[in-house]
Amino acid sequence: MSDFLVRASALTGVRATIEELGGDADQLLQRLGLYGIEADPESWISYTSLLLLLEQASMETGCPHFGLRLSEHQDVSILGALGFVIQQAPDLRTALRELITRFSFHNQGADIALHVNGSVASLQFTCKLEGKLPIRQQEDLVAGIGVDMMRLLWRNDWAPTTVYLAHGETDDLGPYRKRFRCPVQFNWDVTSMTFDATILDRPIVQANPQLHRLLETYIDVLQFAHPDDFPAKIRYLIQQAMYTGDCSIERVAATLAINKRTLQRRLKAEHTSFKELLDEVRFNAARKYLLESNGSLTTLADMLCYADLSAFSNAFRQRFGVSPRRWKQQQRW
Length: 333
Hints:
Blueprint: E1 5-7, H1 14-20, H2 25-31, E2 44-46, H3 47-61, H4 66-71, H5 81-87, H6 92-102, E3 110-117, E4 120-127, H7 136-153, E5 162-164, H8 174-180, E6 184-185, E7 191-196, H9 209-222, H10 230-241, H11 249-255, H12 260-269, H13 274-292, H14 297-303, H15 309-320, H16 324-330
Parallel strand pairs: 5-6
Antiparallel strand pairs: 1-2, 3-4, 4-7, 5-7
Helix pairs in contact: 5-6, 5-9, 10-13, 14-15
């Protein structure tokens, strides 16, 4: 099953929510390999791991609407720079357009869309892993964050016309009615909320258009560490893709929304190739690990997305002329 990346800021409030409900946050985070990562919200984590964490937290705390509770601890700030851009947009339509077009800057595994039909607007959320993983808690979470975002941008007393959730109806509707202050429908085709479309072109009172333009430029630069250096972009994406266990050319090309051949052609124009960049990233990471860690070579091979230890050892020996273990010993002399 393919995986995607999401910024670690998506873990904001997870620990607090689990503990409020009497759960063991450390144990859950460790089980999913997410312990300690919450301290670095700008890093990237596996979207699959996040979805499984939300589901297991719900089951182990006995709270069927865990995602809804978690949404009380999250707001647009989890979007990082994108959250600032949205808040400074001149109107709601622009803000939502920024969110939709740049959402992959925060979460590569989901899409947001806005549909307007006459006087009715619908803001929709779809998960690319739907049907492969449980996403009930994610649906509740994004609905809660979405409503709060609209209240922040428009009016604190605002409420959608209706909130639609794709998952089945729960026994206790009270938390949903209290959170959304509107009718809630379950078993829908797509998680969404509808509202009066006439507010889309209303100005956001607290917005600063000049700051918005500056932030737009900033986020374009921030998305890649070296915006004018295409090979550096690919190195960065390879590093991030390693967290998912798949740093193949197909995965990296998909992140850029281009096909494999286009990526190969662009790298050839830069006098390099995907294999050269992949090897560079892998071996830089391997040397750092060998110098600074006493962890197993099997773990290292897995981190670098090799099929097995033998494949990693052979590649390392071909590159440096000695085995990884021997190279580590040589650095101590």
